[in-house]
Write a structure and sequence with these properties.
binds coenzyme A, binds zinc ion, alpha/beta, eight-stranded parallel barrel, globular
Length: 302
């Protein structure tokens, strides 16, 4: 049975686009509960500018108060050296550095050129120097909502740079749900061939309903690590048209039905998904939490 590994991003990618501030206690309680569900990783928060991402201005408090569960890595998103220093101080298990493969999206999201981001993140890698594992998330790898196509050669150029600088992993992000399954297969094959020894994670958004199909295409091509967001929440506030990540519990439910080992206890996870609308104050896109698992049978109507 193929083992797949999930990184839960609901309290970072999921919450960052929500209009109403989610109380710190709710974030901590959710992370603590998610830590009991079998995730390989949880992206708890981001160490970004509180002006850029006000939702995550409580990153230090969240990191200081969550319970650390052995076997569950706590990763955090980091855009620059300042963020890296804050992340190290908070004893994150991994730093997830971020930049975009699209010039326009990088400017919009991080307020600098790709070359500046690449140089800045390279400084971060040197600064961290073996103290904590580093992952680099590359945004808009399957297309940019402002520029359109992002050539595979551009994705590979940045990926190769960070591989050469000794990162442990790379995350290939479909920031606004532009990927389709054939493109995913092509990308997966290219990445696995070029970086067979790195942790390779794929990060999809379901903006156009292709999320689960893309997961399947990636799994069939040999990718074993995925980001997902509880309830299907999420999106980059600086990418026009962004909407929810692939829904963790829907993806996990599908993969388990197909016989994959995800490590996740769905019976623990689904109640957390069902409690999410109360936390965010609105309905969420996930479907399995509403419909129940395929093994939950209904009584015969009277
Ligand atoms: N943590 C906390 N504060 C930070 C920071 C960090 N990592 N990086 C910068 N700041 C602060 C600076 O101290 C400065 O504060 P001040 O206005 O009180 O003096 C302010 O933010 C601006 O700093 P500057 O270096 O000029 O950055 P910027 O305004 O060009 O913003 C980023 C650059 C990357 C810090 C900011 O755009 C950001 O945090 N973006 C987040 C993007 C994101 O998370 N997107 C969604 C996920 S992909
Ligand atoms: Zn995302």
């Amino acid at each position: 049975m193929t083992r797949l590994y999930f990184n839960e991003v609901v309290t970072r990618d999921g919450f960052q686009i929500e209009p109403r501030f989610i109380p710190t206690d709710d974030k901590i309680a959710l992370i603590d509960a998610l830590s009991q569900c079998g995730y390989a990783k949880i992206e708890a928060t981001s160490f970004t500018s509180p002006k850029a991402i006000p939702m995550l201005r409580d990153a230090e408090e969240v990191m200081g108060r969550i319970q650390r569960v052995p076997g569950v890595e706590i990763t955090v998103l980091v855009p620059n050296l300042r963020g890296a220093e804050r992340a190290l101080e908070s004893h994150a298990d991994e730093l997830n550095l971020v930049m975009s493969t699209s010039e326009t999206h990088n400017q919009t999201n991080l307020r600098q050129s790709r070359a500046q981001s690449q140089a800045g993140l390279t400084d971060v890698i040197r600064h961290v120097a073996g103290r904590t594992p580093i992952n680099v998330s590359l945004s808009t790898c399957f297309g940019c909502p402002m520029e359109g196509d992002v050539p595979l050669s551009e994705v590979m150029r940045f990926a190769q740079h960070f591989a050469d600088h000794g990162v442990r992993g790379l995350t290939v992000c479909d920031t606004t749900g532009m990927a389709h399954p054939s493109q995913v297969q092509h990308m997966a094959e290219a990445m696995l061939k070029a970086f067979p020894r790195l942790q390779l994670t794929f990060h999809f958004h379901n903006t156009r309903g292709m999320g689960l199909a893309n997961i399947l295409a990636a799994v069939k091509s040999g990718i074993t690590r995925f980001d997902g967001s509880l309830g299907g929440l999420g999106g980059c506030p600086y990418a026009p048209g962004a909407s929810g990540n692939i829904c963790s519990e829907d993806a996990i439910h599908m993969l388990q039905a197909m016989g994959y080992d995800t490590g996740i206890d769905l019976d623990r996870l689904l109640p957390l998904a069902r409690a999410l609308p109360e936390i965010v104050g609105h309905d969420v896109p996930g479907q399995v939490a509403k419909a129940g698992k395929i093994t939950d049978l209904h009584p015969v109507p009277a």
